[in-house]
Amino acid sequence: MTSLPVIPISPKAPAGDAPSRRASMPPRHLADLDLAGRAALATELGEPAFRAKQLSTHYFGRLVRDPERMTDLPAATRGRLAEAMLPTLLTPVREQSCDDGATRKALWRLHDGSLVESVLMGYPDRVTVCISSQAGCGMACPFCATGQAGLTRNLSTAEILDQAVYLAGVAASGAVAGSPARLSHVVFMGMGEPLANYSRVVAAVRRLCAPAPEGLGLSQRHITVSTVGLVPAIRRLAGEDLSVTLALSLHAPDDDLRDELVPVNQRWKVAEVLDAAWDYADRTGRRVSIEYAMIKDVNDQPWRADLLGRLLAGRLAHVNLIPLNPTPGSRWDASPKPVEREFVRRLREAGVSTTVRDTRGREIDGACGQLAAAEVAM
Ligand code: SAH
Fold this sequence. Notes:
Bound molecules: S-adenosyl-L-homocysteine
Strand order of the largest sheet: 1-2-3-4-5-8-9-10-11-12-13
Largest sheet: 11 strands, mixed
């Protein structure tokens, strides 16, 4: 991890421009609709239906979000079409990068003043974006920065997608040296609990995977939806006929500790959430990713590794250990490396495939659990 340039994009931005008190949903955008819906909207506007496809090809096919650059649209109608189908959803507040530009975090202001963040991560063989599904989060996990401020509101399908389309455009411009130019992976691991915004998130997943110009044409297998463990929503997702990866933020193998670390556990216990995860694995054939932040002297004891190993042995599961990332005011630290290694060893001994996640973007507060979007003052 090296340089930390802060790239101001919107120097005139806030100054006293506090987020509005009443969060509200944004205007409709073409990304909220499927192609047929977009064509119907164009017709409603008194335009030929093919305009919908033209706009969609710019937006999803060429990653052009600015209507001014859509010069094949007649100037007379461009403004009206743009207002009705491509309203500005995300206003950049700032972008930060580290890892020599391979990790970039974008901070956005939404139309109602809410703030959200997204992260782009370039690797030699792939480009991944981590996107937000809600402004804030209502799940209140005490070790996660996003959980501390509570939930502001759900994002619309288009607000979710516009983050990916913007960052796909950044990648396509060749800005991430040493990585492919084409966005390949999307993880719903930014701000918010995706399964608490179920229908909009599922619509966004469908559009990420629909071929252009309906959507971005990504593979379903390259999409990961991460959840604290909303059991009914996991079961519903299993029935959607989508082969996306489910990531379950477990963090503790026992109810006593998980009740504290992931408060929703007070509603759905470890056994219930794992049952739902195995049902997801059975129905989709996809390996479930078990997320486990390693917190010093809290959840990293050898006996917890053994208990976790017993719960997961023989299941279609993979454990992703995440060294705890620092968050403001937190009383917790990451586990020491030898403790982490012993945890991994015990899980593997139990026959459970386990890796330690490479945590990207710590210096720009862009790593897991650090997205807080609190930095309005520039
Ligand atoms: N609400 C969803 C999506 C957020 S994903 C979920 O919880 O799964 C963010 C991931 O980072 C989750 O696994 C979360 O538990 C984890 N995380 C949160 N705070 C963290 C921190 N301080 N250090 C490491 N991982 C953290």
